[in-house]
Structures are given as structure tokens and as C-alpha cells.
Amino acid sequence: MTPNAASGPSRRSFLASTAVATAAVAGGLPLLSACGGSDGGSRDGTTSGKDAKKILPAYVASNVVTPDIPSKNGSAVGFTGKLDLAGLKTSVPEKLGKGGEVTVMSPFWGSPPKEDNAYYRAMNDLIGVDVVWQNQDGNTYDQKLGAVLASSEVPDVVVVPGWNMTGKIPSAIIGKFADLGPYLSGDAVKEYPNLAAIPTDAWQRSLFGGKLRGLPMPSSYVPAIVPFYRQDIFEKEGYEVPRSCDEFMALAKEATNARAKRWACLDMKWTAFNAFGVLSGNEKSLGWNEVDGKLVYRIETDEYLEALEWTRKLFAAGVVHPDAKLGKSNAADPGPKFAAGEFLIYNQDMSQWWSRTAEQAVQNPEFKIWGMDLFGHDGGAPTLWAQNPASIFAFVNKKASEAVIRDVLAVANVTAAPYGTKEYMATNYGVEGTHYTVKDGVPTKTDQGNIDVMNAYVMVASPAATIAHPDFPAVAKGQVEWQQRMGAVTKKPAFYGMQITEPARWTNLSNDFEQLEDDVVRGRKKIGDVQQAVSDWKSKGGDKLRDWYRKILDENGPAAG
């Protein structure tokens, strides 16, 4: 998925909600980059079943804080109350760090703060470890990552987002990073209670090359792309929220008035995929599932073609904003034109529910964004497919001493603290008075907070997916309840939760399909072109890749659920 694409989430959208929502809330983005790997041996494939159970940490739920809305059907936990600083709990009663130095390389979007800033000092003092950050430009991180992992100068900790796990990166992860199993497998994790409270699914995703190597950033497995709409305009005009593709088309035609500079929507391809029950494009392994005893890839299905055809009809009917037709929406922020009412519906990552609300709260008090429930194309319940429960990982250098590894785990045990704790506030907000203030139970970052407290410590490890917006509690409630309703109709495909490294010779097989999809829905190519591309995909290695996945399935069994 192209960064900042209007039809799907941006690569940095997991950081978009900088109020009290964990970075994990929006994890698992529909990016079409897949895992690459070497051509043979244990570096390809996965670890699951009995082998995984021997390696995975024990799960011990945290009881430090009770959420207002518990997790259900794979949802995040939710908090809808005001923040009470005096009532914050302590989840790390004593420093576990032993005072050593740990270097961390991590992607960073924006301008990194000065090295010796008040936030870094406060966090290091809280943890008992001197963390030295080697922040790298997130937009070109894949290049830096490849160069560093190919060298002999690897930092103590390296953060690797799932979308950067292409080419030789997965193979390098197995070759360069430590096995954390001796410190975390089974009951050993109980020494780090906040890590023990990370869901098992997220740890399953942290297995690389048969070893527990990653510290995960957990996320909900419920699909993260929400069809957002202008609820205020819907109410004013008397529009009903559509519950089928036909209803959506009828509404789109009614709402569009090109002369008045109003169109119904942007590119709705990702919503179409959900409406027609298309297997996930979130990661290539999720695009496979067993149908009548045969493994089928998402691009081979009738549902895939039907979703593209319906999206094409929206463009052809003239109900899609011209920016999306021209492709401008791939580079532009849709927020201003959505706020201006130039279009009423668009699909994007769930984090925008809060961020759009916060943007417009002062200058446009009538503005109200809300999320439509995903619908089945025929008006019935949709069939949704789970996204993976973790997509960003921190790894420890294979050459690190036990002392360094334990210091890294001390860092992670603090950064994985749950919402409602002192450690969570320190990790996500910094120092009260310096980096944030609290008024009427709502924390607000200061100018210094917006400089210092950015995507640093949150990248090492995070708590279970959490949604909390004390400034807009109705949004937090809406987000969690949306996930719960959608989670009830979300299925787990055969390879859900498995960290699979495809053989390199097949890694790029389906890379051109996203562009082809966009050409088809805009009328530049035809459905027949997709069918031909699928035929080519099969002959160029797709059928052999199917056999390769078949072997994994036979050896490991399908995901549960």
C-alpha cells in the first residue's frame, strides 16, 4: 500500500493518534509487501503447533488496571473515563535495569529530538537503563535497515516494522538477532509482568527461524480499515447508512452533486474487499486459505473480481471525488476536503476516527466523523478476515551479553505497561508540566512534548491493544464497540498468526497487482487484464508457491478460529 494512500492506511498511521491511544491501536496495516527470505533450509517457513508451545511465554493477564470496556471478539480494551493522575497505578514497582547502556535503532517520522532531552532522561531513570537512540528516517528506513544488517555494526536493539520485512531482511533477522526464549519462554516471562500480559497471538508472530526473537507491538486482529462518513451531514440530509453495495450505490448517486463540488466518496476498494469477503491483502500469507480442500490465493477468487468490478462502477458513475480518479489522493491528505464536505465517505485506518475529530473540534464544532459498520455486499453479514496480531518488532543483537539482554527486557517491561499506570504515562506522554499538562482529566502535550515525546520508547514493546481518548470518550467507545461488532464476523485464515518467510524466488510474484487493481477500478484496465495476470501469476510460480504453503499447512495445521 502506498504511503498516505486514501484507499488504505499510511505506513505511519499507527502513530497518528498521539493522545492517549497506544501506538498498537492501529497496527497491522494493509500493506502488500510480504516477507522475503532465503531459498532453503530453516530460514523459510514457520514455527507453530507443538513446537511453538514450547517456546511461547506464559500468558498472565494484568490486573493492575481494569478497562472500562474489556476486550471482546478480538477488540482492543477501551477506556472512556477522564484521566486521574493521582490515581495512576504502578506496574513496575522496582527498577529492573542494572544501569547499562543500550543502543536502539528505530524508524522515526519527523525531526528527532536532541539526544539528551528531558523525556529520554526521565525514561532512562525510570527504567534503570541508559537507552541511546539511533533514530532513522522512517520513510527510507528499509534502505538503512538493509545496510546495517549487512554490516558487522549492528546496534543492541533494532526495530523492524513488518512492511520492511522484504528481500533479505527476514533472513538477516534470523542470522543477526538473539533467541529471547531463555529469558521469556514459559514461566520465565513472569519476571517481566507487563510482557507476560502481552497476548499469546502477538508472541506467536514474534517467532523467527524457530526461536522467539521479537518483542512485539500487539494489535487487534479485527480489520483496521473503517468506512468513515460525515455523520452530521447524513443527519442533516436524512441519509441512511448503507447496509449493502446496492444501497451504497444508491446513496452515492443521491449525495453526489458535481456542480456543487460534492461527491459521495473516495476510492472505496478496501471497503469493497471487506464487503465481498476477499481474503486479506494485509500480508501475503493471510491471502491464502483452504477452500474445499484446496489452497486458494485471494487474487484467484470470484470475490476479488466482484469487489474490483463494484468499485469500478462507483468510479464510472461519477460519484468518486475527482482527486481519487486522478490519483491525487495517493499523495494528499484527505482531511481538509472531507472537513469541507467535498466528499462524505472514505476508508482509512481506524486511528483517523480520533485524529479527524480532534482536528475539527474547535474550528468546525458541527463536524462529526463516525465509522460505518462493514456490510456484506448483498445486505447480509460480511465475512471479514483477520489481520495479524502484531506487525512491528524489536530485536536484540545476537552478540549482546546477558546483561544487555536483561536491560533491554527491563526497557520493554516498562514500555509495555498498561494504560492507567505511571509507566504508561511516562512512556507515551513524558514528564508532567514539561511535556504535558492535564486539565479536566484530559492530558495535552506541550510544545516541548510534541518535540521530545515522539515515536521512540513505544517502539520497543507495547501493551495489548488499547483505545483511550479522555478528550473524546465517545470516540473511544465507538471505536472499541465497532471492533467488537466487526470481530464477531471476523474469521482467521489458515496461516493467521504465523510468522512466515516465503522463499525469495517467489517474493515479488504478486507485487504488480495493487497497481493493476487501481487501474481497473479507474477504468484504465479491464477485469480480463486481471484474469490474465492471475494466469501469469500461476505459471510464473504461483502454483509452486501454493504447493509450498500446502506443505506448511500439512505440517503445522491451520490457525484456530
Write the layout of secondary structure elements.
Layout: H1 49-55, E1 77-79, E2 101-108, H2 118-127, E3 130-137, H3 141-149, E4 157-161, H4 169-176, H5 181-184, H6 193-196, H7 200-204, E5 207-208, E6 211-212, E7 214-218, E8 225-230, H8 231-237, H9 245-255, E9 263-265, H10 269-275, E10 288-291, E11 294-297, H11 302-316, H12 322-326, H13 335-339, E12 343-349, H14 352-360, E13 369-371, E14 384-385, E15 390-396, H15 402-415, H16 422-429, E16 436-439, E17 442-445, H17 447-452, E18 466-468, H18 473-487, E19 490-491, H19 513-521, H20 527-556
Parallel strand pairs: 1-18, 2-3, 2-4, 9-12, 14-19
Antiparallel strand pairs: 4-15, 5-6, 7-15, 8-12, 8-13, 10-11, 16-17
Helix pairs in contact: 10-11, 19-20
Describe the structure.
This protein is α/β, with parallel strands linked by helices and 561 residues long. It is 34% helix and 15% strand. It contains 20 helices and 19 strands. The protein has helices at 49-55, 118-127, 141-149, 169-176, 181-184, 193-196, 200-204, 231-237, 245-255, 269-275, 302-316, 322-326, 335-339, 352-360, 402-415, 422-429, 447-452, 473-487, 513-521, 527-556, and strands spanning 77-79, 101-108, 130-137, 157-161, 207-208, 211-212, 214-218, 225-230, 263-265, 288-291, 294-297, 343-349, 369-371, 384-385, 390-396, 436-439, 442-445, 466-468, 490-491. The strands form 7 sheets. It has a 5-stranded mixed sheet with strand order 3-2-4-15-7. The protein has a 4-stranded mixed sheet with strand order 9-12-8-13. Strands 1-18 form a two-stranded parallel sheet. Strand 5 (207-208) and strand 6 (211-212) form a beta hairpin. Helix 19 (513-521) runs antiparallel to helix 20. The longest helix has 30 residues, at 527-556. The protein is globular and about 65 Å long. The two termini are 27 Å apart.
